[in-house]
Automatic annotation (TrEMBL):
<keyword id="KW-0472">Membrane</keyword>
<protein>
    <submittedName>
        <fullName>SPW repeat protein</fullName>
    </submittedName>
</protein>
<feature type="transmembrane region" description="Helical">
    <location>
        <begin position="83"/>
        <end position="104"/>
    </location>
</feature>
<dbReference type="Pfam" id="PF03779">
    <property type="entry name" value="SPW"/>
</dbReference>
<feature type="transmembrane region" description="Helical">
    <location>
        <begin position="7"/>
        <end position="25"/>
    </location>
</feature>
<feature type="domain" description="SPW repeat-containing integral membrane">
    <location>
        <begin position="7"/>
        <end position="99"/>
    </location>
</feature>
<keyword id="KW-0812">Transmembrane</keyword>
<feature type="transmembrane region" description="Helical">
    <location>
        <begin position="31"/>
        <end position="51"/>
    </location>
</feature>
<feature type="transmembrane region" description="Helical">
    <location>
        <begin position="58"/>
        <end position="77"/>
    </location>
</feature>
<dbReference type="InterPro" id="IPR005530">
    <property type="entry name" value="SPW"/>
</dbReference>
<keyword id="KW-1133">Transmembrane helix</keyword>
Length: 118
């Protein structure tokens, strides 16, 4: 697996970017703004790391966790009533977690190929 070629990580990074920047448009509460920006930035950072270091399964699991946390953040931050912010979190979070889940097995396979055999 080559660096900078995995579409799944690009999609997860875009989901993070959408979540972080959507606070400008949706103007949610301060709790929602904080959660969306933090989880958005974490998704972007994990996507960049995954793109630069293919075959690192723990990074894929971390990225999936950030997507799941973004998905549940409307309930954590009590902003389910803010339709724009909540729907953005739900959609971006589930898409990021879903594409990352699809990338975990290939990352594990790449890791096994890269490891020296005994």
């Amino acid at each position: 697996m080559k660096k900078w070629t995995r579409w799944e990580d690009y999609v997860a990074g875009v989901c993070g970017l959408v979540a972080a920047l959507s606070v400008i448009v949706t103007m949610p509460s301060s709790a929602a703004t904080s959660l969306m920006i933090v989880f958005g930035i974490l998704l972007i950072a994990s996507a960049v790391l995954n793109l630069s270091m293919p075959g690192t399964p723990w990074l894929e699991y971390a990225q999936a966790a950030f997507g799941i946390l973004l998905f549940v953040s409307p309930w954590i931050g009590s902003y389910t009533g803010s339709a724009g912010a909540a729907w953005t979190s739900w959609i971006a979070g589930i898409v990021a977690a879903g594409v990352t889940a699809a990338a975990i097995k290939p990352a594990m396979d790449t890791r096994h190929k890269m490891m020296p055999s005994h």
